[in-house]
From TrEMBL:
Family: Belongs to the complex I 30 kDa subunit family.
Record key words, sorted: Mitochondrion, Transport
Protein name: NADH dehydrogenase subunit 9
Pfam families listed in its UniProt record: Complex1_30kDa
GO molecular function: NADH dehydrogenase (ubiquinone) activity; oxidoreductase activity, acting on NAD(P)H
Organism: Thalassiosira rotula
Residue ranges of every copy of the NADH:ubiquinone oxidoreductase 30kDa subunit domain listed in the record: 31-152
InterPro entries hit by this protein: NADH_DH_suC, NADH_quin_OxRdtase_su_C/D-like, NADH_UbQ_OxRdtase_30kDa_su
């Protein structure tokens, strides 16, 4: 079964299954689904005999702070039997949770923890959702576009107290709107 046949199968699937959009981008198949239906769509793509996307190779997150649904989650699936990849995209907001596919794909556990740690997207029914890349007391989510580049607190060694201390960051200069034609 080649990729054209799978594309036709997925197009016919969209008549009975609520897929938002189907795209073919640079010979890669992309399916956009609603976040409430993500888990059910992933179950279908994993266990249906026509697809068999048995491997989850990656989950990534993208932040669009001006959009209504701020975060885009991209699940990349691989069918070893048919030698084809599928990219499943969904959009969510920081106040909504997305169903975890940790029980469906075991590799999803790490990726979902990473997205939780870096973006703050909550995954419902995750078996062990925790921060894995930042410290336990870290505030905020570093890959969000509105996260300050210098952070919220500064850690430094205080010579008089002979220990590491945390201080709130105070920026001594206001941000400027840079104009490339102006020398100042």
């Amino acid at each position: 079964m080649n990729s054209q046949l799978i594309v036709k199968n997925i197009q016919s699937l969209s008549k009975i299954c609520p897929l938002e959009k189907i795209q073919l981008y640079r010979q890669e198949l992309v399916v956009v689904v609603k976040s409430q239906l993500l888990y059910d769509i992933l179950v279908l793509f994993k266990y249906h005999i026509s697809y068999q996307f048995t491997l989850l190779t990656c989950i990534t997150g993208v932040d669009y702070p001006n959009n209504r649904y701020r975060f885009k989650l991209v699940y990349e699936l691989l069918s070893i039997r048919y030698n084809i990849r599928l990219r499943v995209k969904t959009f969510t907001h920081e106040l909504f949770g997305v169903d975890s596919c940790n029980q469906l794909y075991f590799t999803a556990g790490w990726y979902e923890c990473e997205i939780w740690d870096m973006y703050g997207v909550f995954f419902k029914n995750h078996s062990n959702l925790k921060r894995i890349l930042t410290d336990y007391g870290f505030e905020g989510y570093p890959l969000r576009k509105d996260f300050p580049l210098s952070g919220f607190v500064e850690m430094k060694y205080n010579e008089t107290e002979k220990r590491v201390i945390n201080e709130s960051i105070e920026l001594c200069q206001e941000y400027r709107a840079f104009k490339f034609l102006s020398p100042w």
